[in-house]
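Cross-check.
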Amino acid sequence: MKIMRFGIIGLGLMGREFASSVARWCHLSAFDIKPEIIAICDRNPDAFSWFQQSCSGIEQKTTDYQKLLQNDQVEAVFIAVPHHLHEEIYCAAIRAGKHIMGEKPFGIDLGANRAILKTASEHPQVFVRCTSQFPFFPAVQKLCSYIEEDQLGRLLEVSAGFLHSSDLDPKKPINWKRMIRYNGEYGCMGDLGMHVCHVPFRAGWRVANLRAVLSDIVTHRPDAAGNPVACETWDNATLFCETTDKNGTLFPMTLKMHRIAPGHKNTWYLDVWGTKTSLRFSTKYPKTLQILHYRGGDQNWQNMDTGFETAYKTITGSIFEFGFTDAWLQMWAAFVNELQHGSPEKLFATCVTPEETNLGHRLFTAALASHKHQKTVNMLNE
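Predicted model, tokenized:
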């Protein structure tokens, strides 16, 4: 089995999730390539200890990402750092010839995103992708097969969103995601938006115009000393979009990115309505895909119970349940598989491309303008 040697830059929550996925690689079956973490980097050396205890192959630990990128043994890197560092570190990694998986939104703003894509275009030998795990739920893979096989009929409407309650408590201390200099002006859109847009963008649906409503709900949060500090970024965003399908036919699409959503611990959902087939999925019910086939006569929603029927085969029997960490493992399997072998046959079994991150940045930039001027923004004239 071929070993692909990885470095991690940014050892927070997502860095640990990647390390956990690598530790579970034996869960995948019939895979001829395996990642191994050999180098770690974080500005805070206290973050090293968990990785040293959990990953047996680490040969380098450093607080300077440039030293990690200079390591000739490192072939690929996972970069999970605050948004203001994306342009600097992503571009440096690409120039160093390291394949990269980067966290969304792939740049703090549209200018930074364009700089990353330009650097990637100048180094076509480097494989570049962005994280987004939710399409790898088996029920979503099944939903996407209806899209790919053109079984929907004419698209009537799409609704997609990511709702969670991480900021519901107004006493939660402020962090970098509430500060424009670190997070960017997108606020919740930069943090959650790529998850919401992954399937629509991959399906070829393009926003023609939109009206955005952005909400600043908790205006102040306590700092480390308990003093109130202004929150500078948007908590919730709702985008009302007129969208074209791959044939150029218009339909409405609503996108929601809410960090303050009572009743939602961490809910990703996608609803697609078509004249022939309609589909609904929510991570609240992760095994269930709701399907309505209409051929005349009665209309009946059916509940399809899905199991461990994954895009990349595993040792787990197909009748068992699938969860978040399984989606992460599938996402990384997609990254490694595409890097080694090229895209698989299934359109929706691959990671977010740099070009798709650019579609997201254009959308979020237009949403900022729409809310600021309280008007519909035409994206076809960009």
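The radius of gyration is 21 Å. The mean pLDDT is 96. Passed to J.P. for a second look.
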